[in-house]
Amino acid sequence: MSKSIDDLIIGLRAGNRASLARAITIVENNGPQTGAILKQIGPSLGSAIVIGFTGAPGAGKSTLVGAYVRVLRARGKTVGVIAVDPSSPLSGGAVLGDRIRMSEHSSDDDVFIRSLASRGHLGGLSRSASHVIDVMDAFGKDIIVLETVGAGQSEVEVADIADVKVVVCAPGLGDDVQAIKAGILEIADILVVNKADNPLAERTAKQLESRTMGNMAKTVPVLKTIALKGEGVDTLAEKIETLALLANTSGKAKERPRKLLKTTTLEYLATRLDDPDNQSLDKISEKLIRGEISFEEAAISVLALASRS
C-alpha cells in the first residue's frame, strides 16, 4: 500500500476530519485506492449504529433528521450524516449539496455531513453509500444517519444497510396508505407522521396503525413529530435507541456485510455480462440460441468464467 494511503488511514483513525473527507471522496468515486482503504479499515468496523430515514418527498425528512441530530448531540453522541440526493443531469453531483436544512450542525466538529448523488440508482441509495458508512464507522462516529433521496416505495434497499429504518410520512395520506401495501411500509421499524400540527395528522396516524396491526410480520410503532419545533423527537430518539439495541443483541446488525456481498457480486456479474468484447460470453450465448444448453447451465458457465478472471 502506498505511503499516502498509510497516512490517510492513520489520519482517519486519529479523528482527522480532512482524512475523513478525502477517504469518503475516494470510496464514493470508487477510485483505484478504494480497495486498499476498505481492507485496512475492515478490523475497525462494527461500532457505529446506522439509522435510515426514508419516505416520500415533502414529508420533512431533512428537517426531522436535523432535529434528531440535535437530540443526539445533546446526549453526547458523535454523528455522521449521509444524505443521498438526486443527481445533477449535468455534473452527476448531488443537487442539494451539503443540505442547507442541516446547516445548523455545520460548525459542530462532532457532526460530519456528506451529500451523495444517487446517480440514478433506483433503490434510493448511492452505490457507494455503504462504503461511506464504513469509512465513518472507522472514523469513530457513534451514530450514522442515512437519509435517502425520497423517491418513494422503491427505496426498500435501505433495509439492507440500516440497523433501524424510520419511514417518514406526511399528513393526509388517505387512501394512499392502502396503495403502498408492499415495499416501503414493510421495511419500517418505526413509522413517523411528521408535521403533526396538521389537522390530518391524527387521522393519518390512525390509518397507519390500522395498516400495521395484523397486516405486517412485526408490530411497528407509529409516532408523531413536529420537526420544525422539535416536538416528539426525543421520543423518536428513545425508540430508535431501543430498537438498535435489540438489533445488536439479535445479531441482525451483522447481516449487512452478507447482503452487501450479494449486491456487489450481482453488480460485478452484470458488468461482465455487459462487456461487448467478451468472446467467452458470446460463445455461451450462441449455445443458448442453438438450444445446446439451458439457461441454468449457461448461468453456471458464466459463474465459472467469473471465478477464473
Rg computed from alpha carbons, rounded to a whole number of angstroms: 21 Å
Question: What is the name of the CATH superfamily of the largest domain?
Answer: P-loop containing nucleotide triphosphate hydrolases
CA-CA gap between termini: 23 Å
H/E element string?
HHHEHEEHEEHEHEHHHH
β-sheet strand percentage: 5-15%
Q: State mean pLDDT (0 to 100 scale).
A: 82
Number of helices: 11
Give the second-level CATH assignment, the architecture of the largest domain: 3-Layer(aba) Sandwich
Features:
309 residues; alpha/beta; Rossmann fold; 3 domains; 11 helices; 7 strands
Overview of the structural elements:
The protein has 309 residues and is α/β, with parallel strands linked by helices. The chain has three domains: 1-42, no CATH class; 45-251, P-loop containing nucleotide triphosphate hydrolases (Rossmann fold, 3-Layer(aba) Sandwich); 258-308, no CATH class. It has eleven helices and seven strands. The protein has helices spanning 3-13, 17-28, 34-41, 61-74, 129-139, 176-179, 201-212, 233-249, 255-273, 279-290, 295-308, and strands at residues 49-54, 79-85, 111-117, 143-147, 164-169, 190-193, 222-224. A seven-stranded parallel β-sheet has the order 3-2-4-1-5-6-7, with helices on both faces. Helix 1 crosses helix 2, helix 2 runs antiparallel to helix 5 and helix 4 crosses helix 8. The longest helix has 19 residues, at 255-273. The two termini are 23 Å apart.
